[in-house]
């Protein structure tokens, strides 16, 4: 630990604007990738439980491909091959990174959503159908709301994993946190300060996200009772107790 007195935090301060910009880029990539991954993952997840082969097999191949290949390879493939082939030129790191993160996250979310839907008893769907609901309506009103409670913890873990995976977009010269650390390390030829700084920032962000996920998980749990309702229950109980006396 002899290096601690020699740490130069002034070099981090001199590049503070780059680190702040990196935080915003990292968060933007995370939110775009996650929201897009949820929407696409829902479609793919429902497709994976479809009995129609022309829907099931393409979605299965999609999930197998994006879960079976490294995200870094996917980013490079999309940036240097797919997008130039379709558009004729690069669309920038943010578009490429967002597309790669959405496609990759959707594959994992699809499996989470599929497992969540299949965890609901088949009698729920049969009961909804017996009431005259079409399959799509029964899925939307009966199955998905119940399944969402079970999906929240793994979907929350996927959010935290996606936050850390955004660092891979730095291979495209994305101005994220890792890019800022590389610039500072190259400028001063010192590595402890920039990399420990972004490690602390990532740790802080994952801590905040973890607290948010815990709140959402608790809020949607079966045992959750709002504070106002607790107060009403308490006052009702006291009233009943006083009346009995």
From TrEMBL:
Superkingdom of the organism of origin: Bacteria
InterPro entries per record: AA_ABC_transptr_permease_3TM, ArtM/GltK/GlnP/TcyL/YhdX-like, MetI-like, MetI-like_sf
Similarity section: Belongs to the binding-protein-dependent transport system permease family. HisMQ subfamily.
Species this chain originates from: Chungangia koreensis
Membrane-topology annotation of the record: Multi-pass membrane protein
Subcellular locations according to the entry: Cell membrane
Keyword annotations: Amino-acid transport, Cell membrane, Membrane, Transmembrane, Transmembrane helix, Transport
Membrane-crossing residue ranges in chain numbering: 20-44, 65-83, 89-108, 168-189, 195-214
Name under which the protein is recorded: Amino acid ABC transporter permease
UniProt xrefs under Pfam families: BPD_transp_1
Claim: Transmembrane helix is one of the keywords in the record: yes
Residues annotated as domain ABC transmembrane type-1: 23-213
Main location: membrane
